[in-house]
Design a protein that fits this description.
- It is found in: Cell outer membrane; Periplasm.
- It is a single-pass membrane protein.
- The chain has a single domain, classed as minor pseudopilin epsh fold.
- The protein has two helices and seven strands, in the order H-H-E-E-E-E-E-E-E.
- It has helices at residues 9-29, 42-60; strands spanning 64-69, 72-77, 80-85, 90-97, 103-111, 114-121, 127-131.
Length: 132
């Protein structure tokens, strides 16, 4: 008798069924990329970016400058520039973080349906929010 090689039809159908189920479950759990994020989450998201920049400045022992312009927050560190976009937001102002963690300045965040928010970094590099 000649040995058989390959897969049986039932094995292929079961594999395809399992893959379809995994794809359907994954697709249902993915965030909607065509929808703008909730405006109320903007202050928290910008604050998290500020806290991350503070941690980076202290860990790397370098100065970091953050500058808001329109929906873009520009981070400058050791001559390297990175930008973050915050859709629906308008950012103004700037913040400087020294290698020892000391900060100066503030960012102002406005967006449709959101109260004007002033963001700074407090002791320990924690973001603080207040009204403009």
């Amino acid at each position: 008798m000649k040995p058989t090689s390959g897969f049986t039809l039932i094995e292929i159908l079961i594999t395809i069924t399992i893959l379809c189920g995994l794809i359907a479950a994954t697709t249902a759990l993915l965030p909607r990329m065509d929808r703008a994020p909730d405006v109320s989450s903007l202050p928290g998201r910008v604050g998290s970016t500020l806290e991350g920049a503070h941690s980076q400045a202290v860990e790397e022992g370098t100065s970091i400058t953050l500058q808001g312009s329109g929906d873009t927050l520009q981070l400058t560190s050791a001559g390297e520039i990175t930008t973050d976009r915050f859709v629906q937001a308008t950012l103004t102002g700037g913040l400087s973080i020294a290698p020892d963690g000391a900060t100066t300045g503030a960012l102002t965040l406005t967006a449709p349906g959101l109260t004007c928010t002033r963001l700074t970094l407090g002791p320990g590099g924690l973001a603080q929010q207040g009204a403009c």
